[in-house]
């Protein structure tokens, strides 16, 4: 796993913690986190994260700010 994916996985962990802490009440946020998880599973971890993957993560982070 390269440094780009390592950073990305750390950011996703924070989102997952927030999702669990909030009790999965915001459906849009829960779906955004799920999309990021799936994209990471199918991504090539030996390369930098794709722009699409970064966009999914940024959208989830934007939604997390809305509920925080």
Question: Could you walk me through the main structural features you see in this protein, from its secondary elements to its overall organization?
Answer:
The protein is an all-alpha fold and 68 residues long. It has one domain (3-67). The chain is built from three helices and no strands. It is elongated. The termini are far apart. 16% of the residues are buried. The mean pLDDT is 88.
List keywords for this structure.
68 residues; mainly alpha; 3 helices; 78% helix; 0% strand; elongated
Brief characterization of the structure:
With 68 residues, this protein is an all-alpha fold. It contains three helices and no strands. The relative contact order is 0.22.
Assembly level: single chain
Q: What global shape is seen?
A: elongated
| Low-confidence spans | none
**What is the number of E strands?**
0
What is the count of structural domains? Answer: 1
If you compute it from the alpha carbons, what radius of gyration comes out, rounded to the nearest whole angstrom?
Answer: 12 Å
Residues in helices, as a percent range: over 70%
Task: Label the structural class.
Answer: mainly alpha
End-to-end Cα distance: 30 Å
């Amino acid at each position: 796993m390269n440094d780009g994916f390592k950073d990305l996985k750390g950011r996703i962990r924070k989102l997952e913690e927030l999702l669990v802490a909030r009790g999965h009440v915001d459906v849009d946020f829960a779906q955004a986190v799920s999309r990021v998880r799936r994209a990471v599973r199918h991504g090539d971890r030996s390369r930098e994260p794709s722009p699409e993957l970064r966009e999914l993560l940024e959208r989830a982070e934007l939604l997390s700010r809305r509920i925080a």
